[in-house]
Amino acid sequence: MAGDYSNYLTHLECGLSGERHEAGRVHGLSRAGKPLLARYDMAAMRRGADRDAIWARTGGFWKWRELLPVKETKNVCALGEVDTPLIALDNLHDAGTVIVKDEGRLPTGSFKARGLALAVAMASELGLDHLAMPTNGNAGSALAAYASRVGMKTTIVCPDDTPAINIEETQLQGAKVYKANGLINACGAWVKAGADKGKWFDLSTLKEPYRIEGKKTMGLELAAQMGWTLPDVIFYPTGGGTGLIGMWKAFAELIELGWMESTKLPRMVAVQASGCAPIVRAFDAGERFADPWQDAHTVAAGIRVPAAIGDFLILDAVRDSGGFAIAVDDAAIEEARMRVAGEEGLLLCPEGAATYAAYLAARRKNLISKDERAVLFNCATGLKYPMPEAGEALDLGAA
Ligand SMILES: *Cc1c(COP(=O)(O)O)cnc(C)c1O
Fold first, then answer.
1. In what order do the strands lie in the sheet with 98-102?
2. Ligand 1 within 6 A of 231 CB?
3. Which residue among 249, 303, 333, 355 has the greatest number of ligand 1 atoms within 8 angstroms of its CB, and so is best to mutate?
4. Which ligand 1 atom is nearest residue 242's CA?
5. Is 380 near ligand 1, meaning CB less than 6 Å away?
6. Which of 166, 165, 123 has its CA nearest to residue 141?
């Protein structure tokens, strides 16, 4: 990456209380124990950053430097990022109404690249040298890859039923990997204990402020790709909710910058699996915080998050947008994955397939109409996940 980029980061703000925290030093959670959000001098950004010049750059999500917290170009860690494509499911639906944003094209095959690249860049900028994280799969490999790229050490712990491919890719890309006999939250407690002893810095979802800034670029990119407008509704597979929170923040910043051709915001839909749906339960009950889910299980490992520290930020965004939260079961997820692969030639990950299953369920329940333009997030390449056995035996020796 070449060029000079202005930086507009001013401070960090507690997502719950709004309490101000200083930029330029290492932060985990806010003093209230909640996620911190990066804040910028928006008036200066409005004067100094040029929408069309930024969008004309190459470099994938790194093109948004003026809207991101990284100050020094030497801390940018790049592995060939691209803008991810929008692919309309035109065989299954009226042209242009159901569109998949395919995040599986990013380095390490998932959108975790966006968040972890930013987190690693900021960790370099702040002088950290050993990062640790619990993961259900994709976050671990993205952290390992970007950290190795900048010569930083990583320790990753995942539940022992995490798909082998995620464990293997993570280790191969330079991390020390542990397989633990517990769910993601128990793994998180172990990482926190190590961080408290000073062994490493805890990079768990939303426990540091910058992953969300990386995920924010999904919203920036989507707006630019749609001609600085937004779809009517967004279906997001929600685990920790970083992407949903990040996109909602992106839309607010774009409007504040005056960059949008239309200021109509999409309805945000949090999609979960019925075997792990704490956000859906809290949404239905009218709660602002979600109780932890017991005995979480689903084929969609990326959204198997029993307790999300940013629960209130997810629920606030969903409610403020006029959206909703919806759960789909594993059978519906697998059916949706088969349909989109077979009829559109697009192999979704199970979490992405969950958004299509949720779209169909929402249409059946009249929560959305067929004319509404929907964007579904496929957050990882389908190639990383188990597939049904296939191939019929053929005897080449038979007459
Ligand atoms: C992590 C992950 C999710 C959930 O993302 P959050 O922003 O943490 O809610 C969804 N799908 C896949 C494939 C993931 O890896």
1. 86-88, 98-102, 374-378, 233-237, 267-273, 324-328
2. no
3. 303
4. 7
5. yes
6. 166
**Are 119 and 192 spatial neighbours (Cβ–Cβ below 8 Å)?**
no
**Residue 3 Cα to ligand 1 middle (Å):** 32
Positions in the chain whose pLDDT score sits under 70? 1-3
d(CA 107, CA 247): 20
- Out of 212, 351, 355, mutate this one to test ligand 1's pocket (max ligand atoms within 8 Å of CB): namely 351
Pocket test for ligand 1, best of 105, 110, 184, 333 (most atoms within 8 A of CB): 110
Position in ligand 1 atom list of the atom nearest CA 205: 8
Distance (angstroms) between ligand 1 centre and the Cα of 196 equals: 26
Per-position DSSP letters for 332-381, written without gaps between them: HHHHHHHHHHHHH---B-HHHHHHHHHHHHHHHTTSS-TTS-EEEEE-BB
- Residue length, the chain? 399
Segment 154-179, tens digit of pLDDT: 999 999 988 899 999 999 999 999 99
Atom of ligand 1 nearest to the CA of 138: 15
Same fold, 112-202 and 211-384: yes
pLDDT digits (tens, 9 = 90+) for 7-20: 999 999 999 999 99
Hey, what are 84's tokens? 């991810």
| Plot region of 207 (φ>0 → left; ψ -120 to 50 → alpha; else → beta) | alpha
Q: Is the beta carbon of 315 within 6 A of some atom in ligand 1? A: no
Q: Whole-prediction pTM value? A: 0.96
Domain at 211-384: CATH code = 3.40.50.1100
Domain ranges of the chain: 112-202, 211-384
Which residue type occupies 298?
A: T
What is the per-residue DSSP string for 174-203?
T-EEEEESS-HHHHHHHHHHHHHTTSSEE-
* CB of 110 shorter than 6 A to ligand 1: yes
CATH no. of 112-202? 3.40.50.1100
